[in-house]
Structures are given as C-alpha cells and as structure tokens.
Write a structure and sequence with these properties.
With 243 residues, this protein is α/β, with parallel strands linked by helices. Helix content is 40%, strand content 23%. Strands 1, 2, 3, 4, 5, 6, 7 and 8 form an 8-stranded mixed beta sheet that branches. The chain binds ligand GEK. The site of ligand GEK has 20 residues, from helix 3 and strand 2.
Length: 243
Amino acid sequence: MTKHKSDSLYASPLTEMVDFQFDERVVDVFPDMIQRSVPGYGTLINMIGILATQAIQPNTRCYDLGCSLGAVSLSIQQRVTVPCEIIGVDNSEAMIKRCTEVLAQEPSAAVVELVCNDIQNIIIKNASVVVLNFTLQFIPVAERVALLQAIYAGLNPGGILVLSEKIAFEEPTQQDFYTELHHDFKRANGYTDLEVSQKRSALDNVLIPETRATHQQRLANAGFASSDIWFQCANFASFVAVK
Ligand code: GEK
C-alpha cells in the first residue's frame, strides 16, 4: 500500500495568503488532506462505486469530473462488471500525472481514460453516470448552470449525476453549528487552530458553497427530473439527480 505524506501545508504562519491551488505540493499530500478535511469521504467514495455500478449501462461512459487522484474512478473501476469507459477529467496537470500512476494497472471491465482539461471544455456524450465529487464548488457560481446543462445533455435517459458539495445554510445559527462541527472534525484529525484558519482563508475566494435548495433548484433548471440527497455527513452532502 502507498504511504501518503501528511498534510502540513498550513502548519506554519504565512506572511501572505495566496488562493488555494491544486499544485504539486497539494498533490503530494492530497489523500491525507481530503480524508482529514471532508467528513465521511472514505465512506462516500465506496458508496459512489456501488451506486455507479448499479447505474452504469453496458457500452456507455462514466465521467469523473475533477477526478484529482482518481478515488472515484478507482472505486468504480474496481466494482464494475459491464464493459464501459470511465473518463477522468481534471485541469491540474500535477493531479492527472499522479492519477495516471494510481490507476495504471487495475484489471477491470472498464477502460479508463484520463484527460487534462477544464471540465467546462469537454463534450459529454453517451453517459450513464457523471460524478462531480466536490468539484462544482470550485466553478464560478455564474458558470455552474451551463456545466449542469452540458452534463444533462450528455446523459442517456435514466442516467444519473452524482453531485457532492460542501453545503451552506441560510439560517446563521445552523451555519455556525455546522462550521464549528467541521472545524472540530479537523481538529480531531490533528489540524491545529492555525491550520484550520489559514486553510479557510486560502479557500475563501476559491470554494463557494451553496445551500441545498440552490443546488436542487439549479438541477431542476438544468432539466433533471428529480434530485435528492442520498448521503450527508455534517455540511458535506451528495445529491443524486436522475435524467
Ligand atoms: C475525489 N473528486 O477525490 N476543470 C477541471 N478540474 C477542476 C476544475 C475545472 N474547472 N476546477 C477544479 N478542478 C475528487 C476530489 S477536489 C476537491 C475533487 C477538493 C479540480 C481540481 O484540480 C481538483 O483536483 C478537483 O477539481 C477538486 O473524489 O480538493 O476539495
């Protein structure tokens, strides 16, 4: 098993706060970072593999948009039993380079292709499953509906979109409750107060969470017949939307 480096990117005081980027320094610590930062991440990855396997039709495509190091692609690749194509897309060269090594030699019914590009530039077609696992939150808010429309257009009838996001709350007391719970989760995983606060500042302009209602309204506007939350841990929720 690969030994992953532990994340200490925000452990020392930074004189200048730079917006968070998915560069080589992040790639090196990414598995540790996401496990210690996203409550329920490991369970969600396993469950997406199971859900996707249920939904994938033979000889169709499954897209993992914002694939990072390929956790979702791998979870599907290891479970799927019908011939299909998994397409992982990420615009971070460093992520795609490392992801290629992670997914290299898995025996599977699925063929995996990795693409280094903006997910807003790719043409989605013949898809039975599209996964946006904590990626839409990094797309500018005004551009989100166009991406969901392109996904909807590329899905076959009955196909599903799995959309996982950090979510926001309208009620300030509810927002405070979940923010504190999330920060306590990070502290319980060994992050210091300094790391929690510096990471929060670095993500401020980059990761824009929205409410459950906003997501579901946008999914409906993009054409999806139904959507529901099928998994949630604290303020991290996953929607499944059906075409
Ligand atoms: C996982 N899904 O492990 N085009 C392509 N990729 C993008 C774009 C874009 N416009 N914007 C951001 N990314 C993964 C985790 S991480 C979530 C996803 C997180 C990519 C970015 O390079 C990064 O790899 C990924 O989306 C978001 O299940 O770190 O919180």
